[in-house]
Amino acid sequence: MMQRKADFDIPSTLRRGCLTVVVLLGALSAARADDPLHVRIDRLIDETQIGPVAGDCTDAEFLRRVTLDLNGTIPTADEARAFLDDPSPDKRTALVDRALNRPRYARHLTTVLDVMLMERRRDTHVKSPEWHTYLHDSVVANKPFNQLAREILSADGVDDAMRPAAKFYLDRLGEPHLLTRDVGRIFFGRDMQCAQCHDHPLIDDYLQDDYYGIFAFLQRGTLFVDKKAKKSFFAETATGEAVFTSVFTAVKGETGPRLPGQLIIDDPAIPAAEAYTVKPAKDVRPVPKYSRRAALAKHATDGTNRVFNRNIANRLWAHMMGRGLVEPVDLHHPSNPPVHPELLELLADEFVAMNFDMRAFLRELALTKTYRRGFDMPAELAADSPDIESHLSRVTADHAQRAAAVAVLEKEVDTLLDGVLAAQEAMFDVESENTKAIAALAAVQKKSTAAAKTLADSKQKLSKQEQALKVLNEALTKADEVVRQFPKDAEFTAAAETYRKRVKTSTGEIAALKTLIEKQTVAAKAAAEKTVAPASAAKVAADKLAAATQQVEQLRKPYLQKLYAYRDARTLAKHREQQREHLNAIVAYRQSTEKQQALVAEIAAARNELTRVQTAALQAESEVETALAKVTTPQQRHTTALKNAQLIRAQHADKHKLARQVAEAATAGQAALAVLPEDADLKSSTGQLAELAAQLNNNLSPLTEQLKQAEAKVAEAAAVLKAAQQKLAAAQEKLQQAKQLTLDADAKLQAALQAQQTQTALVDNSFQDLTEQFAGRFATSALKPLTPEQLSWSIMQATGVVAQQSSAAVAKLDKKNPPAPPQRETLVEAKVNEKLKGNVRLFVKTFGAGGGQPQNEFFATVDQALFFTNGKKIQSWLNPAGGNLTDRLKKLKDPAACAEELYLAIFSRRPTEQEATDVVEYLQVDSETDQAAALQEIAWAMLTSAEFRFGH
């Protein structure tokens, strides 16, 4: 059943309308077709590049990168030294060519293809050595990839010469669904496993209909075990259609064989009776005249299927660049478009044009500027650039136009789909009627056939009896002749009589049988007549089904064509959306950086302000201390004056009180004297009191004056004290204000520092995101972890194990007739590989992913750490012996030379000044034994470092 979403690839007839940029760039490329592919790749990337890019990597990085990618190992120390010291301007090109012409290239690409195709599955029906030999021979012969893929997809294991190629099918046990998933992933870049039972729940464009389009090529296959030959083969039948039902919607669907991006491939019209070259039977491997699987191999690899072409171009690009233009490489769909759609089209077209030549294709990739990019982000990333804003505006406008075009196409697709669905539903109804008509016809045909068989059996029996009667009559005639000649011979007479009786019996049986045949003839005729109507009805139903099926196909073809155009438009719209997001991320990073820089200036100003107010606070505090000191003396003087005035006031009060009392006594005496004027004593006492009161009043006046003066001094001291206190209060208020300003300035500084910390985190996160985006867009080089095979060979190369085995192989060859250099290198490589492949298997077991799983994800485990820490294998390689790395280093007397040899052998570069100093210091030990241990420790640390574990 057709669905509303399907794969997004476009037939070439429709690509023009949706790939405007591709067409324009294609025309531009055609005008410059004489340029090598790597030049056109660089030009295309430069023309479509967004933002700055990283510069060229160093010579050391390039050397290590090329050797790992093309030979699967690091270079030797001598090779590194020679390359780094080579002043030739074209040494990088020469390095690529040398790597491609070494035997290690074929060995490494064999491993790459093996891992890609078999994903480290365990052997079941084809042994790995046979398979590896087949792949290795193919690479050595530079077999075109499409030929290799065609051989693998069509191999059944019958031809001994091509049996290894059948490993892809046989070691997957010929299971159609597993094969469908892996063929879709590995050869077409679509992991549609989740579309087996329903449309993919996460990827809108992976549909059950697409899944069964591939399944239809493979569902007729099965694993056939030949018990006599004790071998397994891949067998096929001539029947079986891809019918499926969604477990979500319960809607039934059916499709013929269909490759991603193409229409259904019709089976040739072959009568059912002629469908097999070898018919199915017990213990017999069937061979159909037409093989859908062979059709899969043919149509996928003939250069016309763009999905197949793009997939392998993308995988080889990923092998060299560390990630695909579509990443993950097995998830091609509109929501995950290529980061450079035009580039992927160019690569796919050119790979086909160069006849799928992997060696030539990898060479072109290795010569690009993209491959040479460094790992570090471009320094000008944060620089303001009006080009970015202008580019963003153009991309935004283009995305809006494409989104609008997608909406229009979607409506057109939905309209066409409605017609397909309606026609398909009608077809299913007619199919049901046809099934019933066939069943009804089969029922009456069964009776007619039975009646016809009964009649035929009777006729055959009659024929046999008539033939027997004829023989009996002949025998009777001859017997009668003998009796006439020997009438008295009783035996002859008895024999003749026996024949006569048997003739009579047989004649009666024949007569009865003829009567029965007459009745059976009538019955058979009647049964045959009963099939006429059902046969007619069945023919009508079959014609209706054929017409309904034809109607579906007529509607389905324009629908698929429009759908592919819609998917392509969506792909490019999504690509523009991602470009816009990338540009926005650059702009946001620059704005964040500018804000970060503004915060730095703000923090500097806040620090200056805090320093200023802190200085002012210190000044105010000094003024308070000065004012406080100036208050002390007036305070003391005021206190003294106040005490003196209080003393005088007390004295004055006492004397004033006494004078008042004396005066009051004198007044009382005068009153008494008025009553007793003659009382001389009273008169004398009163006079004395009056004199005393006058005297006391006279004595009080100076004290009063003294009191006035004391109080005046108190007032004067109070005024001076008040003035000093006012100055102190003013200074204290000034100090309080300065302290508050200090607190405010410090709070402002802390807020700015916190804002800077937050902004720095935002900038760091933004930078990290941009780092991933730049690597994903190939503006910087991606960080590639070494595969288990690369890691094992590189460690053996660095420690000198490879050199030891090579020397042994050379010595063995030289004992006989030494071969010529090219053949010699090939033979040596083969012998070294044979000797060391067990070590490689050990690394694969420890560092490889599980069998049947994608093998391109980096992961670290405790087992890996223990392998390096406690594993005796690597430790043994580091024990000085037989001219290995540590043995060579021991013989170097200069520690600086040791440092250089270490770094060239392990990191393929010379050490920095600091690194050389660190090595020299570490080697300052007392004895040769300690020095050997130190060399082993340094080498072990370098081999287990992140720099060695990754291709950097």
Radius of gyration: 54 Å
Strand content: under 5%
CATH architecture of the domain at 575-776: Orthogonal Bundle
Q: Terminal Cα separation, in Å? A: 50 Å
How would you sum up the global shape?
elongated
Unreliable runs? 1-31
Number of helices: 31
The strands making up the biggest β-sheet line up spatially as 1-2
Pfam family, one: PSD1
InterPro entries: DUF1549, DUF1553
Keywords: Coiled coil
Domain DUF1553: 292-388
How would you explain this protein's 3D organization?
The strands form three sheets. Strands 1-2 form a two-stranded antiparallel sheet. Helix 14 crosses helix 15 (341-353). A hairpin with a 4-residue loop joins strand 1 and strand 2 (231-236). Among the domains are: 187-295, no CATH class; 575-776, Helix Hairpins (Orthogonal Bundle), CATH 1.10.287.2610; 788-949, no CATH class. It has helices at residues 15-18, 20-31, 37-48, 59-71, 77-85, 91-100, 103-118, 128-140, 145-154, 167-170, 176-188, 208-218, 292-301, 306-321, 341-353, 358-366, 369-372, 386-485, 490-530, 532-675, 680-776, 788-799, 801-814, 821-847, 862-870, 872-878, 885-890, 895-906, 913-922, 928-943, 946-949, and strands at 221-226, 231-236, 242-245, 252-255, 276-278, 287-288. It is elongated, with a radius of gyration of 54 Å. With 952 residues, it is mostly helical. Residues 455-482, 589-623, 693-748 form a coiled coil. It holds the Pfam family PSD1. Residues 292-388 form the DUF1553 domain. Keywords: Coiled coil.
